[in-house]
Design brief:
The protein is of the alpha/beta class and 245 residues long. It has a single domain, classed as Rossmann fold. The strands form three sheets. Strands 6-9-10-3-11-12 form a six-stranded mixed β-sheet, sandwiched between helices. Helix 3 packs parallel to helix 5 and helix 5 runs parallel beside helix 6.
Amino acid sequence: MSLIVRNVHVTVEGKPILRGVSLQVQAGEVHALMGPNGSGKSTLANALMGHPRYGITEGSVEVDGKNITALPADERAQAGLFLSFQYPVEIPGVSVQNFLRTAWRSLHSGQLDHKAFSTRLQKAVADLQIEPTFVKRAVNEGFSGGEKKRLEMLQLAVLQPKYAILDETDSGLDVDALKVVAQGVQAARAAGIGILLITHYSRILEFVAPDHVHVLTNGRITQSGGKDLAYDIERVGYAAVQPQP
């Protein structure tokens, strides 16, 4: 059971961004993907989730043996992929609760056990230390940066995908909000969800020990290793980290 990215190339508006990215995330693993600005991290996240602007021109993506390279975003979600956005958008007039209920129904062929959904939502709210009134608010409308990231973790906890791509979910958070996000990641890992954690810094890795760390530079993974690789980057910067032969 794994998310397999094979030699993925992505061109955006005629410019090559990803130049052959390959990695494999097993169920229950956390892979941290690090890299400088402009290296292609968010491009990879969007391409994996099926954003039409980030079409894959070469290579393939598989979820548990199913090739999803040509599928639209909704079918990728149904296959088990989840994307936590770096900049979550507001949806005025749609409550968090109704948003999650609709997402749950779409992932389960229109079926909805109201009691089971309510129980799962309430448990996730409690586990993430979120105020119960939070789910009555419109999605991201007037939310602080920390609240937006908590909502991303709430979606992950409720929807329970097979694999989650977290695009800089730790960006701009204070230490308390960071701990809540880390708790959400750890809970997802314990539930067997494979995590691709895209981040600039090693700070979140103080709370979430990754199984693997990858460095993306100029559209390619140039180095892979363990948690110590993240600390090497924090100490000496990307330029000083030696690429793989």
